[in-house]
Design a protein that fits this description.
Blueprint: E1 20-27, E2 34-41, E3 54-57, E4 70-80, E5 89-96, H1 108-117, E6 124-134, H2 168-181, E7 185-190, E8 196-205, H3 208-226, E9 230-232, E10 247-252, H4 254-257, H5 261-274, H6 276-282, H7 289-292, E11 309-311, E12 318-320, H8 322-327, E13 332-334, H9 343-354
Parallel strand pairs: 1-5, 11-12
Antiparallel strand pairs: 1-2, 3-4, 4-5, 6-8, 6-9, 6-10, 7-8, 10-13, 12-13
Helix pairs in contact: 1-9, 2-3
């Protein structure tokens, strides 16, 4: 524990003068975990171009060898800091190697380049991020019986009451912190498995989707620290007859949102069908191995081995919402991405398929 026994840190209201604290965030060599450290900036700003390039020891993050360990951090997006508050900021960064080239673990740059190529189509995304809470050990699901399991799935989804819902204080804190930070959080709900939750981010256009989702994940994990709870983004955290966790990705382009958009939606789905294997490879950080445990054809998933789609079909690879089918335009939902997927990689793969025909 931190020694404050839950009390507010008495030093955080001290005056900072004109200086601010910028917390630089980056994705480490696992492609899943976030790292970060703080830099003093001499004047307040929300513009990443005003911030200096920094560096870190890549040999400690699986991103370089010890004999040539410096990796550069290039600021690309700024958010208000809900923890330090004031003018302090969170800074999403890209990683660059010692020569200033794109680092192999930097998936954002490729995504940005491809979003720029298809910006006239105004691709919008909304991602439904599912996650599971565990106790401080990271082994036992938060709020589950010490020995055994809770009752079968059924009463927990969007439930209320201490016998059905665990961790709501964390969820509410995360929601409010995201709103404060400027994250485009759209909603949240308890999920089918107890101690499993979902929040939605979007609509976001282009590269903004990845920036907002990654920083929202950092905020969630940082808030969970305060409650001594571990957040898991594993796509199948509990084996057996329990739902897995996904990162369902909703997609639309400008032609899909206009009258007659269903024609463009079906055309995009056909293109995705032809690239099913490529998408599966990019929809989790292990080239599909994590998703094998989740995409079984059970528990509201499609089989990883085949592509299918349908209206209001939650057992499909791609779902067209009922209202979209009725309106004749709108968006569709790709249900295949895993909860630990990299949103830069996911959205990059999608626009390459449906916008750039790659």
């Amino acid at each position: 524990m931190d020694g404050l026994d839950g009390q507010t840190n008495p030093f955080l209201d001290l005056d900072q003068g004109e200086k601010i604290q910028a917390y630089y965030i980056w994705i480490d060599g696992t492609g899943q975990a976030l790292r970060g450290k703080t830099k003093t900036i001499l004047k307040k700003t929300m513009n990443p171009e005003d911030l200096p390039v920094w560096n870190f020891d890549g040999s400690s993050t699986n991103q370089s060898a010890g004999e040539n360990s410096d990796i550069y951090l290039k600021p690309v997006a700024c958010f208000k800091d809900p923890f330090r508050r004031g003018d302090n900021i969170l800074v999403m960064c890209e990683t660059m190697d010692h020569e200033g080239n794109i680092h192999p673990t930097n998936k954002r740059n490729s995504c940005f380049q491809n979003m720029e190529k298809c910006k006239d189509l105004h691709p919008w995304f909304g991602i439904e991020q599912e996650y599971t809470m565990f106790d401080y050990t990271g082994v036992h699901p938060y709020g589950w019986p010490a020995n055994g399991y809770p009752g079968p799935q059924g009463p927990y989804y969007c439930g209320v009451g201490s016998d059905r819902v665990k961790g709501r204080k964390i969820v509410e804190a995360h929601y409010r912190a995201c709103l404060y930070a400027g994250i485009k959080v759209a909603g949240s709900n308890a999920e089918v498995m107890p101690s499993q939750w979902e929040y939605q981010v979007g609509p976001c256009e282009g590269i903004e989707m990845g920036d907002h989702l990654w920083v929202s994940r950092w905020i969630l994990q940082r808030i969970a620290e305060e409650f001594n709870v571990v957040i898991s983004f594993d796509p199948k955290p509990i084996p057996g007859d329990w739902n897995g966790a996904g990162c369902h990705t909703n997609i639309s382009t400008l032609p899909m949102r206009e009258e007659g958009g269903m024609e463009h939606i079906y055309a995009a789905i056909k293109l995705m069908e032809g690239k099913h294997i490529e998408h599966i490879m990019d929809y989790d950080p292990t080239g599909g191995e994590d998703n094998k445990r989740r995409l079984t054809g059970l528990h509201e998933t499609a089989s990883i081995d085949k592509f299918n789609y349908g209206v209001a079909h939650r057992g499909a690879s791609v779902r067209i919402p009922r209202q979209v089918a009725a309106d004749g335009h709108g968006y569709f939902e790709d249900r295949r991405p895993s909860s630990n997927a990299d949103p830069y990689v996911v959205t990059d793969r999608i626009v390459r398929t449906i916008c750039l025909n790659e």
